[in-house]
Design goal:
By secondary structure, the protein is α/β, with parallel strands linked by helices. It has 13 helices and 12 strands. Strand 7, helix 5 and strand 8 form a beta-alpha-beta unit. The chain is globular. The C terminus is likely disordered.
Length: 295
């Protein structure tokens, strides 16, 4: 009889501990690895602390080691609060029931500028060298989306150093064309620097990057996050992130799922591994064919 009581108390104790562990499970805040781990921690670490206090649940900033690991972990659903581009946010909304929280004001738009006056159409860029930030960055995706046949595409040349690096690479002869953010091309290049370049293509306007919440968060938590982000125009934690990516912005604005609809196709149609049921995800389990996975 005594041993049964002891076992019952032990079972109850383990149940309580298990419930506490679940309640205290840390939510993961992340963003693409656009800076070093130290710089990422400096930028997003304070936000993780502020969100922990706001939600009453631990929030930990995790800096992805590489773009590949970022992409893989995202597809596995490891991230709970994410700040990144519209192509990724759209993909999570479509496939992981993510909810937009707030975004940077304005839109993202791109030019393809060429230095060869003989090139007058996008089709002439097939097999030509184009300077860009490599996919899954939006600069590459909006242009690759114009070339649906993978055998008939430009040669995308990965350039580091952001937009200034792309301009330097193009003007040094590494590419006959380059992809620029319109605000960089119009606002940072002088008339003299634009000499010898002409705009071949202008992309559609795409909603700016923003924050989204994953399905692990409750509706109450989502509301708290959204309210906090939309009221943080002078917040010392949020504003460094806002200014890092939008110097003239005074804060975040509201976001909704409808404005991101369809941009997941930029990933799924142009980057290997981003389709809803990519074959590579089933290679580790020979008994689970892609056909079966889709049933």
């Amino acid at each position: 009889m005594f041993s049964k009581i002891i076992r019952s108390w032990i079972a109850l104790f383990l149940l309580i501990c298990s419930g506490s562990a679940i309640a205290a499970e840390s939510l993961i805040l992340t963003a693409p690895p656009r800076e070093s781990a130290a710089a990422g921690q400096k930028l997003y670490g304070p936000l993780a602390k502020a969100l922990s206090n706001l939600l009453g649940q631990p929030v930990t900033y995790v800096h992805p080691k590489t773009w590949i690991s970022y992409s893989i972990d995202m597809r596995k659903g490891k991230y709970d609060i994410v700040f990144d581009g519209p192509q990724f946010e759209s993909w999570r909304i479509a496939h992981q029931n993510a909810v937009p929280l707030a975004r940077l004001p304005g839109f993202l738009q791109f030019y393809v500028a060429v230095s060869d006056p003989k090139i007058t159409s996008m089709e002439q860029l097939i097999a030509k060298r184009v300077c860009a930030i490599s996919s899954p960055n939006l600069t590459s995706l909006v242009v690759l989306d114009q070339f649906r046949d993978p055998a008939r595409q430009p040669i995308m040349v990965n350039v580091k150093g952001g937009m200034p690096g792309i301009y330097k690479a193009q003007t040094s002869g590494k590419c006959v064309a380059a992809i620029y953010r319109t605000n960089f091309y119009n606002g940072h290049l002088t008339d003299d620097q634009k000499q010898g370049l002409h705009i071949l293509f202008t992309s559609a306007k795409i909603p700016n990057q923003g924050f989204s919440a994953g399905s692990k968060l409750s509706q109450a938590q989502v509301s708290k996050l959204s309210d906090y982000m939309l009221s943080g125009k002078s917040d010392p934690v949020l504003m460094p992130i806002v200014k890092r990516f939008s110097k003239n912005a005074t804060g975040l604005i509201g976001a909704n799922a409808a404005e991101y609809k369809g941009y997941n196709a930029l990933l799924e149609d142009n980057v290997w591994g981003w389709s809803p049921n990519p074959i590579w995800e089933h290679l580790a389990d020979p008994g689970k064919s892609p056909q079966k996975a889709q049933q």
